[in-house]
Amino acid sequence: MSADVADLAVDVDVVVDRGARTVTRKPALRAITPEMCMVNLDHRLRIVSASMEFFRVFECSSDAVTGTSLCDLLHPSVRSKVESQLRLLVRGERSRFVERILVMRDNGTTLSGEFIGSTVHGVGDRLDSLTVVFRPDKNEQGHQVACTKKKILSEIDARILEGVASGVSTIQLAANLYMSRGGVEYHVTTLLRKMKVKNRPALISKAYSMGIFGVGSWPPRALPDFVR
Predict the structure, then answer these.
(1) DSSP per position, 6-39
(2) Distance between CA 113 and CA 118 in Å, rounded?
(3) Per-residue pLDDT tens digits for 27-74
(4) N or C: which end of the chain has fewer CB within 10 A?
(5) What is the mean pLDDT of the segment spanning 153-162?
(6) What average pLDDT does range 16-27 have in this prediction?
(7) Measuring CA to CA, which residue among 138, 130, 133, 117 is closest to residue 32?
(8) Rounded to whole angstroms, what are the CA distances from 217 to 65, 81, 207, 208, 223?
(9) Which CATH superfamily is domain 6-144 in?
(10) CATH 3.30.450.20 in the chain, residues?
(11) φ and ψ at residue 185, rounded to 5 degrees
């Protein structure tokens, strides 16, 4: 039996053999500071239980999120990366990870902070559950970001935006997409207007701030959440 979250003050199954009597302490979840919240996940990354601090920070209720995927509460730009890390825990390829993430809330604000994922093992070193701790940045009250749940890009818009973000020239983009140079420029102009920016560098920055591109991926790829 082992637990990789001892440093996070999470109580886990402890089996103590006192002669012929075995005493078992069941798992418990508790927030230890105002800045920390915790959640337990099953093997499919679904929320099983969470601390009261988790529900306060995420502005949700137990009934609303229990049984749903934790990744659905994250900003699109970090979902894939966090899910990959969690699946490594499930497969036993890692016992702990730390990631910078953004959390989406129903009121349109986000919180940035640190995600700490750990494994919790039961008797026989069997994987019992995953525990994730979210530590919001200090003095973080939630702020507005340019994020939308709408699919705002056509397939061709997405490819052109990816090309611009990768530094591909207009001529090369036109050749890659079997378009005229004027056609590419037309779509870029449309994107500038749609994203309400004035130039290509601002367009790239706005795309990242909206979470259109996944964090840590190169070349940039528009996430399916934004492509219709």
Answers:
(1) GGGT----EEEEETTEEEEE-------STT-EEE
(2) 17
(3) 433 333 434 688 889 989 999 988 888 888 888 888 888 999 999 888
(4) C
(5) 92
(6) 42
(7) 133
(8) 29, 9, 14, 11, 11
(9) PAS domain (3.30.450.20)
(10) 6-144
(11) -60, -35
Confidence band, pLDDT 50/70/90 cuts, at residue 149: low
Q: How far apart are CA 77 and CA 208, in angstroms?
A: 8
The DSSP secondary structure of 31-71, one letter per residue, reads: --STT-EEEEE-TTSBEEEE-HHHHHHHT--HHHHTTSBGG
Question: Distances from the Cα of 25 to the Cαs of 4, 6, 104, in angstroms?
Answer: 17, 15, 35
* CA 91 to centroid of chain Cα atoms: 19
54: tokens are 């988790």
Q: Where do runs of H (alpha helix) occur along the chain?
A: 52-58, 62-65, 76-90, 155-166, 170-177, 181-195, 200-209
What lies within 8 Å, CB to CB, of 168 at 6+ separation is 176
Statement: residue 25 has pLDDT above 60 = no
Q: What is the pTM of this model?
A: 0.59
Contact between residue 122 and residue 13 where contact means Cβ atoms under 8 Å apart: yes
Q: Report the pLDDT value the prediction gives residue 160, as an integer from 0 to 100.
A: 93
CATH 1.10.10.10 domain extents, the chain: 155-226
